[in-house]
Amino acid sequence: MIHNMKLNNEPFEKIKNGTKIIEMRLYDEKRQLLKIGDLIEFTNILSNAKIVVIVDELFKYASFADLYQNHDKKDLGYSEEEIANPSDMEKYYSKEEQKKYGVLGIKFHLKKD
Questions:
Q1: Helical H runs in the chain?
Q2: Cα separations (Å) of 52 from 47, 56, 109?
Q3: CA within 13 Å, CB half, 28
Q4: What is the residue-level pLDDT of the chain in tens, covering all 113 positions?
Q5: For the CA atoms of 75, 66, 96, 8, what is the dihedral angle to 10 degrees?
Q6: Nearest 10 degrees: CA dihedral of 77, 43, 98, 19?
Q7: Are residues 40 and 5 in contact, defined by beta-carbon separation less than 8 angstroms?
Q8: Which fold has domain 2-110?
């Protein structure tokens, strides 16, 4: 199955160049359909470029704080110098949404053509 998701330019480029291997999302109805082996087509909202990844693992957590505690910040797309702060995700998902649905870490690898 192919799932479509939009991404800002910076995380899109990090996935494309292999420096981000876990995408973080709300575990809402749309993400509950994800299964290991599924394809995700990410569309860059700035350039409309597309990349396809294959889902390797799904990590479900109650909050982004839990997710951040259990994964290397580099896998989440942070550089060594950056501070990985779970509240960064609140610009996308409110605390209420996180509490209602929980959150998901989607580990993947780029699909080779």
A1: 9-16, 64-70, 95-101
A2: 15, 13, 9
A3: 9
A4: 999 999 999 999 999 999 999 999 999 999 999 999 999 999 999 999 999 999 999 999 999 999 999 999 999 999 999 999 999 999 999 999 999 999 999 999 999 87
A5: -10
A6: -10
A7: yes
A8: 2.30.130
